[in-house]
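sorry for the late reply, my laptop died twice this morning and i had to redo everyting from scratch. anyway the thing you sent over, i finally got around to it. pasting the sequence first so we're on the same page, its 187 residues, then the predicted structure underneath. double check i copied it right bc i was rushing
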Amino acid sequence: MSTITLTTWSLEMASPQDLVRAAVPGPEISVRRAEVPSPEFSRFLYASVGGDIHWTDRLSLTRAQWVEQLGRPGVETWVAYEHGTPAGYVELDPQEDGVVEIMYFGLLPDFRGRRIGGHLLTLGVDAAWSLADRWPGREATTRVWLHTCSQDGPTAMDNYLRRGFKLFKTETEQKESTPTPGPWPGA
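ok and here's the structure:
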């Protein structure tokens, strides 16, 4: 069994004014909130975006666990489309004291490197800051944060920093090396 050194970086944004907006890529790109939680669609996005970059923590969840996760008040999924085809997504996870975590963010492999990610992240951060507007009883957002790691895409960290996120924690650990799961079992 071989091991790898995994570095995880945690980044945060403390004010909506810290957001540095990315350019809008073009009229063929649209971003919409998936207003009806769908475990099948969310699992498709998760596996398709993360299959080549070692996203595995949710692959073993049952449908009921997906329903539970997605059905919590304030959890939102925002999806980027190119000409109606899903290109990537942002999942927001509300936490205590007005904190919102960008739990998952990324693009399907064929859509990376085309300036869609900066735009999607901009709109995802906007959605995180305005979460209380859509969820009555939710505290106003006071902080947006996320984490990325050395197994994520090569432009992920740069995108976060360009959007105005600030690094607040770095952790390094040894982890068992595993093959990427691909977008579906056996792929």
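The longest helix spans residues 116-129.
thats about all i looked at so far, will dig more tmrw
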